[in-house]
Amino acid sequence: MEAFSDAVIAIIITIMVLSLDVPRGHSFASLHPLISVFTTYILSFIYLGIYWNNHHHLIRATRKVTGAILWANLHLLFWLSLLPFFTGWMGSSSYAKIPTFMYGFDLLGAAIAYFVLQNLIIKSQGADSLLKRAIGRDLKGKFSPVLYSAGIIFTPISVWLSIAIYIVVAIMWVIPDRRLENYLASISEES
Fold first, then answer.
1. Residue 126, SS3 per DSSP
2. What is 23-37 written as a DSSP string?
3. What's the CA gap between 34 and 2, in Å, rounded?
4. How far is it, in rounded angstroms, from Cα 118 to Cα 116?
5. Do the beta carbons of residue 61 and residue 121 sit within 8 Å?
6. How far is CA 183 from CA 103, 126, 129, 152, in A?
7. Helix (H, G, I), strand (E, B) or coil at 112
C-alpha cells in the first residue's frame, strides 16, 4: 500500500510540474504572467509533501491492512489526484472565485479522506493502538477541515482570505509534528 501510494503521489507531482508553461520570453518580465500559476504550484507541492510525509508515518504505524483501509487509501489518493487539475485551474485563472472554491473543496476532500483512513486504521487495531496513542486528540487533524470549510465559505467574499486560510493550514502541517515519528522511534528502541 505504501509503495503504491508513493508512486501515485510521485505521478501527481510529475503531472503538476509538466503542466507548468515555459515563459514565452527571455527576461524576468516574461515570468510575470506565470506568477499565479507558479505560486499555486508551490502551495500544492507543499500540500503533496505534507500528505506524503504524514502518510508514510501513518502506514509505518499500521500493523494490519484491511479491505476497508485499502479503499480509504484509494479515496485519499482520488482527492490528491485532482490537485493538479485544480492547481492549474486556479493558477491559470489568476485566482478566480470558482477555481479557488474548487481548490478548497479538493483540499477539504483530501483532509476528510485522510481522517477516515486514519480512523479506519485505528479501528482495525483497537483504541489502544500505536497510532491512537501517537496522535492523541489530533487537534490539527480535526481543525484543518474546519479551516478548509471556512476558506470555501469565504471564497465569494474574498479569494485572498481563502488562499490565506489554505496557506495557514499548510504552515500548521509543515511545522514538524513529531508525535508519531517520536512514538515510532521510541517503540523501535524498546524492541
1. coil
2. PSSSSGGGGGGGHHH
3. 34
4. 5
5. yes
6. 33, 17, 12, 34
7. helix
For 31, the grid coordinates are 515570468
CB atoms within 10 A of CB 148: 24
Question: Which cell numbers in the block locate residue 60?
Answer: 509505518
Taking the C-alpha atoms of residue 168 and residue 110, their distance in angstroms, rounded to an integer, is 16
Question: 8 — phi, psi (to 5°)?
Answer: -65, -45
Contacts of 131 (CB under 8 A, 6+ apart): 58, 61, 62, 118, 121, 122, 125, 180
Query: How far apart are alpha carbons 36 and 87 in whole angstroms?
Result: 10
Scanning the structure block, which residue is given the C-alpha cell 479522506? 113
Average pLDDT over residues 115-130: 88
C-alpha distances (whole Å) from 13 to each of 46, 99, 174 are 10, 19, 17
pLDDT tens figures, 141-171: 899 999 999 999 999 999 999 999 999 999 9
* Model confidence, pTM: 0.90
173 in Cβ contact with 53 (< 8 Å) = no
Residue 168 CB-half CA count within 13 A:
15
Per the CB < 8 A criterion, the answer to whether 144 and 118 are in contact is no
- DSSP letter (8 states) at residue 19: T
Q: Quick one: which H or E segment has residue 167?
A: helix 159-174
* C-alpha grid cell, residue 33: 504572467
